[in-house]
Write a structure and sequence with these properties.
heterodimer; A: two-stranded antiparallel ribbon; B: mainly alpha; 63% helix; disordered N terminus; DUF1468 (chain B); membrane (chain B); Tripartite tricarboxylate transporter TctB family protein (chain B); transmembrane (chain B)
């Protein structure tokens, strides 16, 4: 088993004392930031990006893996104890977890969530180890037209699967693509949208875009509508589970990953859909259906496990195809680009130490997560009481640090603010933020692949669809685009039938 | 998504409330302006220099610009037909109150001031002012505690990033003295 050997080497990298330290710091920081109300995993990862700037890529990504899992775990703590999920994937955790906490079973809810995360992450990462090298191997021969097709799929999926309005999703994507155009054209050096400014000729750094849209935009948006009375966090002791709870939860923990992992790997909105699917499944299979809505432990265990596994699934498409399927993956891709590393099929060949070190540190991170977070839970719960002015002032502060650290230029702070104001406007008018970020990150790459493909085919458009892979991807794109129409037809068909009957 | 029709007294009121109701048309206008901007930039581009391959540096901007115009039109139609973008909710967001523009402007001002001050004053001072200013704008009025927290946070961040993590930040005159 080649993958196993590589993984062992990866553990060699991840378990060196210094890397172990980075992983531990990552897990702690990620959890602390993720627990803070109002900060979802994407913002946590974006805000913590500058922490890794001074490190070498391997150490940076090992720390990143810890931040990612830590932030996800922290988010569920917030939903359970505060009942105000910051992001859609945590909604389900609040549905059963908060009633449990209110009934004095917060410790059990947190334990079910933590072990769910552990189980889901473990199974998900094992699937990642098994599948990712195979996919990378298959994808290693794919060429420019295939890459372009994948990116078109990412654009279409992110605008039509997420959010309620396709028009608004597309508007957001186009805003992102426009920002991505700023700077010198990669193939000819032609200035585009720079208006003669030397600052803009370098383009707008994706990290600044991500921090601006996720952190500044969010902080300004919350500032405009700050709830004057914050919800009371429920105090909690050290998480533990009784034998009855374990008996009820273990099947849910085991089922979650198989719902979460596939959804994470495809561009379908990350953990949102699988957590709901897992919830519905658990409700249907549970012997305690009457408890659902009032604090059923299966409703915490299953969805949290699914969410964690979907994070691993996300990494499969991110590492093997360079395709970010969630906001966090988008920020991670931006981080890879910071180091001049392009994730994709060749990553496993070119940077084996980094990739396998990263994957091994996912396992290490999960063990650290459960070892540190169970005893520290009461401390994390205290973070929920942070005064809101400090919280949002802190977000602005660290966003400024991150943007300044990118290039040491004060003008970047102004660009950050402008992008933050765009993010504010987008939140006000219901434009989803993710398509814009994906547009900025993938736009320039997609353009390059498009031009390369057409160069090979000498300008003939058939050059874009001359491989079975690209044709398959375009079929999926067409299906996604036609889905609302199909749904309407199906609905009309079924309603006709009911009228006939 | 609420369609509140408030009682109107004089004649300017209906128009104003119509505009308020349809303020999303502003997004449409912005997209239109952006589209025109991208298209003009692309069309006025001087592409005689070394164009490699059949697709030059203008093609994608033209597609994006045209897309922006189309989406601007579609969004306008959607808004006029009664479609509304849903304002984002969140843990600390209370959408039942009208937007507090004063806070947003204050925060933006504090942030701009930081951008101006960071090079002359250095990070520790400018960062502390940013945190205190932002906390003040957000309603914190603990004059004994806020500046202390701001100074400690800023100094600690500077030391951790600059000295431990190897991410250079400007020390400014303060660090020169210390």
């Amino acid at each position: 088993m080649n993958a196993l050997n590589s993984l062992m080497d990866g553990f060699g990298t991840a378990l060196s004392p210094l890397n172990l330290l980075w992983a531990a710091i990552g897990v702690l920081l990620g959890t602390a930031i993720g627990v803070l109300p109002g900060i979802g995993p994407a913002m946590a990862v974006a805000l913590l990006l500058p922490v890794t700037y001074g490190l070498d890529p391997t150490a940076a990504f090992i720390m990143f893996a810890g931040i990612y899992y830590g932030a996800m775990f922290g988010g569920s703590t917030t939903s359970i104890l505060l009942n105000t999920p910051g992001e859609s994937a945590a909604v389900v955790a609040a549905m059963e977890g908060n009633p449990m906490a209110k009934a004095g079973r917060g410790a059990q809810a947190l334990a079910a969530a933590a072990i769910g995360h552990f189980a889901g992450g473990m199974v998900g990462t094992i699937l990642l180890v098994a599948l990712a090298p195979k996919i990378a191997e298959l994808a290693v021969d794919i060429g420019a037209p295939d890459y372009f097709a994948i990116m078109v799929l990412a654009f279409i999926a992110v605008t039509s699967v997420l959010g309620s309005s396709r028009i608004r999703g597309l508007a957001s994507l186009l805003i992102g693509l426009t920002i991505g155009l700023i700077g010198l054209d990669q193939m000819t050096g032609q200035q585009r949208l720079t208006f003669g400014s030397l600052q803009l000729a370098d383009g707008v750094d994706v990290v600044i875009v991500a921090v601006g849209l996720f952190a500044i935009g969010e902080a300004l948006w919350v500032a405009a509508h700050l709830r004057r009375t914050s919800g009371e966090a429920i105090p909690v002791g050290r998480p533990w589970l009784g034998r009855g709870d374990v008996k009820r939860s273990w099947k849910s923990w085991a089922r979650g990953p198989f719902i979460g992992f596939p959804f994470g790997a495809i561009p379908a909105g990350g953990a949102e859909i699988p957590t709901f699917l897992s919830y519905v499944t658990e409700k249907r299979l549970s012997k305690h259906k009457d408890e659902f809505g009032k604090g059923a432990i299966e409703g915490v265990a299953g969805p949290e496990s699914a969410a964690s596994a979907s994070a691993a699934g996300t990494l499969v498409s991110m590492l093997t195809l360079g395709l970010p399927t969630t906001a966090v993956a988008a920020v991670m891709l931006a981080a890879f680009q910071q180091y001049g590393i392009q994730p994709g099929p060749l990553l496993f060949e070119r940077e084996p130490e980094l990739v396998w070190g990263l994957i091994a540190s996912l396992f290490v991170g999960m063990v650290l997560l459960i070892a540190l977070n169970l005893p520290l839970a009461p401390l994390w719960a205290k973070l929920l009481r942070i005064p809101r002015p400090y919280l949002y002032a802190g977000i602005l502060f660290f966003a400024a640090v991150g943007a300044y650290a990118v290039g040491g230029e004060a003008i970047d702070l102004v660009i950050l603010l402008v992008i933050g104001l765009i993010g504010f406007g987008m939140r006000r008018y219901g434009l989803p933020v993710l398509p814009a970020v994906i547009g900025v990150i993938l736009g320039p790459a997609a353009e390059q692949q498009l031009r390369r493909a057409l160069q090979i085919s000498d300008g003939s458009v058939t050059g874009l669809v001359n491989t079975p892979f690209s044709v398959t991807v375009y079929v999926v794109v067409v299906l996604l685009l036609a889905w609302p129409l199909l749904k309407k037809l199906i609905k009309r068909g079924s309603s006709d039938r009911t009228v006939d009957a | 998504m609420t369609t509140t029709t408030e009682p109107v007294s004089d004649e300017t009121e209906p128009r104003r409330s119509w505009l308020k109701e349809h303020s999303e048309l502003g997004v449409s206008v912005l997209l239109l302006v952006l589209g025109v901007l991208v298209l003009t930039d692309a069309l006025t581009m001087d592409v005689d220099i070394a164009q490699r391959g059949p697709v030059g540096p203008r093609t994608v901007p033209i597609v994006v610009g045209a897309g922006l115009l189309v989406i601007a039109a579609l969004l306008a139609v959607d808004v006029l037909r009664g479609g509304r973008g849903e304002a984002e909710s969140g843990e600390d967001v209370d959408l039942s109150e009208p937007a507090d523009w004063r806070t947003v402007l204050l925060l933006a001002g504090v942030f701009l001031a930081t951008a101006v001050l960071i090079d002359p004053l250095g990070f520790p001072l400018a960062g502390a002012l940013l945190f205190w200013g932002a906390a003040f704008a957000l309603g914190s009025r603990r004059y004994d505690r806020d500046p202390l927290i701001a100074a400690a946070l800023s100094l600690l961040t500077y030391v951790v990033f600059n000295n431990l993590l190897g991410v250079p930040l400007p020390g400014g005159p303060l660090m020169g003295v210390l």
